[in-house]
Amino acid sequence: MTPMPKRFETKIAQWRQVEPLFSADHSARVTALPDRTMFNGILWIMQTGEWWDVLPPRYGDPHALQKQFEIWLANGTLKKAIDQLKGQPGMEWVNHPTALIRVE
Predict the structure, then answer these.
(1) Contacts from 71-76 at CB under 8 Å and sequence distance 24+?
(2) Tens of pLDDT along the chain (104 residues)?
(3) Domain residue spans of the chain
(4) Which part of the chain is the Insertion element IS402-like domain (predicted)?
């Protein structure tokens, strides 16, 4: 049985919609964590407005995730994914990350 996504995380159907954007270029990865885990960690930061250092442990190392965020932001992956998810049930709050994320 697949666990229910936590608040601010992608549902299975939502992840399937954006997954090809992330799996296209694995050379731009800084950690072995699954792309979905990293993306959900970034969504958590975006929604809560918290600093990277208070990222829940289930999302991995905060510094590695912050670096991955910077890569996906620079190469356009994050913008494309957010454009696809914006306004979907449970993702009404999603907006472009540059306006929401405080980078240390």
Answers:
(1) 71/28, 71/29, 71/30, 72/22, 72/28, 72/42, 73/97, 73/98, 75/25, 75/28
(2) 344 446 678 899 999 999 999 876 666 667 788 999 999 999 998 888 889 999 999 999 999 999 999 999 888 898 899 888 887 777 766 666 654 444 44
(3) 34-99
(4) 13-80
